[in-house]
Write a structure and sequence with these properties.
This is Phenylacetate-coenzyme A ligase PaaK, adenylate-forming domain family. Keywords: Ligase. This protein is of the alpha/beta class and about 450 residues long. The protein has two domains: about 350 residues, 3-Layer(aba) Sandwich (Rossmann fold), CATH 3.40.50.12780; about 100 residues, GMP Synthetase, Chain A, domain 3, CATH 3.30.300.30. Helix content is about 35%, strand content about 20%. Strand 16 and strand 17 form a beta hairpin. The longest helix has 22 residues. The chain is globular, with a radius of gyration of 22 Å.
């Protein structure tokens, strides 16, 4: 995309910040009509999938939903650039040396870890990438226009830190690495921190780096606030961006009070990164000028405003190379009709839980240390042959692992690898007296939501 086109999109994003709800909906309708017309012409999959839908219809309820397994099974027919081939892209994402590179020298590729049951591969075009970059800015940048935030940003040399799982083409880590590769600014001022690192190592690294802006898993940021209160951590960020996991108003207040900084929650997914951003009144606003959100029940029927959904159907209005139309994201959300006191006409939304519990273990020296859910589950997910997993703490020193294997793997060999990797991970955190056992059942979906929980404890809290 040339700078002029990128500038047009960026300008439109910022202009929409103060428009009426009617104008937001008009933007959405125009983009939706163009998208539906495009996918019916250019995507072989959608052309067949919508064969029974009247031509020219923009009523989304007439269009059958799609799921991640469905899109992965028909990947080559879904994408609209015939140069993109699933077998080749699988080889690309299997190569960790290519993290941060563009597939075919053109397309960023982001993968999901499979914690909701199926791993996914999602290709981004330039419009989608631009939207990922600028949608959050229209909510966050105005909050930083002040003497104190700007002073901190300059004092900390514009350092931006991201706490995200590495070792794969995940949106956070791969996106950051791409920016590091493609710009001098990114190379010097962007740094990735792994939640899989022992908490003390993470604290040391952050003390050395001194981020001006720190984005990452909500559970990790809350734990870092405790470390700051204890005097082990000493950073002065201007902005904290909790993401990827639910965070309560109380926890956000803890972050604000501890670090004396601006806190803005982000909600998104690999498939569409900037779904919603928090405003100064603590409400998440859905970016509905570029995404359509349909909160639905288990039968894909719409739920009333103010009612938590069983899942949400997402239609991305930015990505044409791998279109998502009524895509079952799997999250429970609640959309509200009420306006926000901040004055924005973008709808307010809330998000249900998507992750698991932070598990506290005692080290060999008797110290309590936290183990974060995404860090723990990713250890198992990275074992070759693992299709999906769940980890349950069934006793103070016992972890039970549910897992399912791929067709080319044997349970016995995979289990040996899982047990070895988990024990190694725990030892790295100073925890050696844990029994890791295989569950008799495979991972199970929650009956109500149909989702997989990642990590949780059955102990009384």
């Amino acid at each position: 995309m040339n700078p002029f086109e990128r500038g047009k999109i960026t300008l439109d994003v910022w202009r929409a910040r103060g428009v009426t709800r009617e104008e937001i909906e008009a933007r959405q309708r125009r983009r939706l009509a163009k998208l539906l017309s495009f996918v019916r012409r250019q995507s072989r999959f959608y052309k067949q999938h919508y064969a029974d839908v009247p031509e020219g219809s923009t009523d989304l309820t007439q269009y059958p939903p799609v799921t991640k397994p469905m899109l992965m099974e028909h990947f080559d027919d879904v994408v609209t650039d015939t140069a993109i081939i699933k077998n080749e892209i699988d080889e690309f994402v299997a190569d960790e040396t290519k993290i941060g590179e563009r597939y075919l020298g053109k397309y960023p590729v982001w993968t999901t870890s499979g914690t909701t049951g199926e791993p996914g591969v999602f290709v981004q075009d330039e419009t989608a990438l631009t939207i990922s970059d600028v949608l959050g800015d229209r909510w966050i940048v105005p909050a930083l226009v002040g003497i104190s935030p700007l002073s901190r940003i300059l004092t900390q040399n514009l350092h931006i830190g991201l706490v995200a799982v590495s070792g794969g083409h995940f949106a956070g880590a791969a996106g950051l690495e791409m920016m590091r590769r493609e710009s001098i600014y990114g190379e010097r001022r962007l740094q990735l921190f792994s939640p899989k690192s022992p908490i003390d190592d993470l604290i040391v690294a952050l003390n050395q780096y001194q981020p001006a802006i720190l984005e990452g898993y909500s559970t990790v940021l809350v734990e870092l606030a405790q470390a700051q209160q204890d005097g082990r951590l000493d950073i002065s960020p201007a902005l904290l961006l909790p993401t990827a996991e639910p965070i309560s108003a109380t926890q956000k207040r803890l972050l604000r009070d501890t670090f004396d900084c601006i806190v803005r929650e982000l909600y998104g997914a690999t498939e569409f990164v900037p779904i919603a951003v928090e405003c100064e009144h603590g409400n998440l606003h859905a970016n509905t000028d570029w995404v359509v959100l349909e909160p639905v029940d288990e039968d894909y029927q719409p739920v009333e405003p103010g009612t938590p959904s069983d899942t949400v159907l997402v239609t991305s209005l930015s990505n044409r190379v791998q279109p998502l139309v009524r895509y079952d994201l799997g999250d429970s959300i609640t959309l509200y009709e009420e306006r926000c006191p901040c004055g924005s006409e973008f709808p307010i939304m809330e998000v249900g839980g998507r992750q698991g519990d932070v598990l506290q273990f005692e080290t060999d020296e008797g110290e309590e240390v936290p183990i974060f859910p995404l860090a723990l589950s990713s250890v198992v997910e990275e074992v070759p042959g693992v299709h999906r997993t769940q980890i349950i703490r069934t006793a103070p020193t016992t972890l039970q692992v549910r897992f399912a294997v791929t067709a080319d793997a044997t349970e016995e060999e995979v289990w040996k690898h899982i047990e070895r990797e988990l024990q190694s991970f725990l030892r790295d955190h100073g925890i050696s007296r844990i029994t890791v056992e295989a569950a008799s059942e495979t991972p199970q979906r929650e009956k109500r939501s149909g989702k997989f929980r990642h990590v949780w404890s059955e102990l009384e809290k």
